[in-house]
């Protein structure tokens, strides 16, 4: 777990940072295999594209190779599965979500020297391509298709409401720590949905190293401890949230939870 924080995430490719995150959450992550698979895919792509002329033509061929010949695609059947947030599983299944597919695409594209960056758009992760003296273009890593300003505006309105306006800051390049932080929250949600509480607890512990006093993260940790039958610890976490966020609607519900757990603790002892 500690190796994850010893690394400078901005000095790594996003896929490498994600692998560190995956390993910190689940020690069974096949990180070494995933690293070798990424290199294998690059070598295969390099051979496939050796005769391509011109950087942009080469990029278009790589785009087709990644999404059509290799078959990387968004997981439409089980979008919220935790497998879609583990890089080794995405490489194995060739299915994922925008951020995991985008991280793999970025890793390979940058090894070719293509001018690509990640964008943490409000609705999903995007790939930005910055050709010299051209306006940036954007790719949806869920399906490998280009998306224009009108589509992005429609996505934003669907996310934030009819008054939402597309702004330049929505399309700024994302730094790795910010993306990894969102990835961690996404992974925790997936693991909670699957009732894999021990791994979800690792996600919460990692998040709390970034923001040690975050009451919402501590509330989530309390819920996980409650599912693991660690009621006294859960009650302590819930009480912290209640004290810090007394006006939050969840506090009233948690008060009854804390009372019930305290009463159970008294009966047992």
From TrEMBL:
<dbReference type="InterPro" id="IPR011990">
    <property type="entry name" value="TPR-like_helical_dom_sf"/>
</dbReference>
<dbReference type="Pfam" id="PF13371">
    <property type="entry name" value="TPR_9"/>
</dbReference>
<dbReference type="InterPro" id="IPR032698">
    <property type="entry name" value="SirB1_N"/>
</dbReference>
<protein>
    <submittedName>
        <fullName>SirB1 family protein</fullName>
    </submittedName>
</protein>
<feature type="domain" description="Protein SirB1 N-terminal">
    <location>
        <begin position="34"/>
        <end position="184"/>
    </location>
</feature>
<comment type="similarity">
    <text>Belongs to the UPF0162 family.</text>
</comment>
<dbReference type="Pfam" id="PF13369">
    <property type="entry name" value="Transglut_core2"/>
</dbReference>
